[in-house]
Amino acid sequence: MESVRAQSPGRVNLIGEHTDYNGGMVLPAALSVHLEAELVPRADEALRISAEAFGPLHERRLGDEAQQHWSDPAVGALREARSLGLIEHGADIAIASTIPAGAGLSSSAALIVTLLKAARKLAGADISDTDIAVAARRVETDYIGVPVGIMDQMAVAIAQPGEAIALDTATLDYRLVSLPEGHSIEVIHSGVTRQLTDGRYRERKEECDAARLAFGREDICLLDPDEIEAKDDVDDRIRRRARHCASEHRRVLAAVEALAANDVKVFGALMIASHASMRDDFEMSVPPIDALVDNAIELGASGARLTGGGFGGCIVACVPETARDKWLEGLLARHPEARFIDRTSA
Ligand code: GLA
């Protein structure tokens, strides 16, 4: 049978965390680490999935429910492809990936989007990348059961390495933005692993739901900062979650402007303020990440912050090209548990 291939990059979020399910803006960039897949349709309902990076050849059925296995995103993607009319039966799927799993760099979104793009190619269907991203999110929320936003799927479906995408998650309008000139966007793993399925992501989502109820509006990112402080019958924790969402949304808007003006000083300051907000108001950081971010700045980064869902994973830093090698050497010397993952630049 005919075989098709597709590929997607990993992504790093430059700024705009936990705003993507609260009606706010995000600014992720595509990385050079990426995932490729080859899909060969089968005449039966079997899914034979091989992925060196994840585990040995694994056989599933199209009718399978999710079972907390690395192959769930692939099974979910093929089920979604079938309900979109892109594929009739099962498939042999070969996956090759350089995106580290569990690092907050969207390995799961990249897998789902890649398989949906491969199925689109197979069917010769006219489905936009935005619709692919929306379908990929459905796989995560409805099939796998993690209440994620739309940032990762849009970033990996649309952005190319070296590009950032300024995305309004309320409308899915986006524009591509250039990375700062003369600077490198560095992605460093903290050594603390996390998984979106471990419950803390969901807990934050539920606190945002509580903020929605308390303030009486869906898109809490668009709340007026004064209104957040003025309302007196709100639990302090819920107020802080809302404060993070609203202030983070504004920081993304300012960051997009700063990048358009190539103003790295302002862009870096916004990254630093974003980290403080994630640490203090959204409480999604952990001490080893705070230390890594502080040292990244001390050693000369223009800005640095935790990136992704939180509670571990990677930091992202914006570092002058000329200082990059020394910066990295100094940072890894102070943090032997950390490791360099990838970098991207304009
Ligand atoms: C994860 C989710 C995204 C987003 C980020 C936090 O990456 O998949 O939808 O919510 O966390 O910004």
Radius of gyration: 20 Å
Sketch the topology as an H/E string, one letter per element: EEEEHEHHHEEEHHHHHEEHE
Helix content: 40-55%
Class derived from helix and strand content: alpha+beta
Instruction: Estimate the global geometry from the Cα principal axes.
Output: globular
Poorly predicted parts: none
The bound ligands are: alpha-D-galactopyranose
Spatial gap, N to C terminus: 40 Å
Main sheet record: 7 strands, mixed
Describe this structure in words.
- With 346 residues, the protein is of the alpha+beta class.
- The chain is 40% helix and 24% strand.
- It has 10 helices and 11 strands.
- It has helices at 72-83, 107-123, 129-144, 151-158, 200-215, 225-230, 236-260, 264-280, 287-298, 324-334; strands spanning 4-15, 25-41, 46-51, 55-61, 91-97, 163-168, 174-178, 183-189, 303-306, 314-320, 339-344.
- The strands form 2 sheets. Strands 1, 2, 3, 4, 5, 6 and 7 form a 7-stranded mixed β-sheet that branches.
- α2 crosses α3 and α7 (236-260) runs antiparallel to α8.
- The radius of gyration is 20 Å and the shape is globular.
- The chain starts with a strand and ends with a strand.
- It binds alpha-D-galactopyranose.
- Alpha-D-galactopyranose is lined by residues 13, 17-18, 20-21, 148-149, 151-152, 308-309.
- Residues 13, 17-18, 20-21, 148-149, 151-152, 308-309 line the site of alpha-D-galactopyranose (GLA).
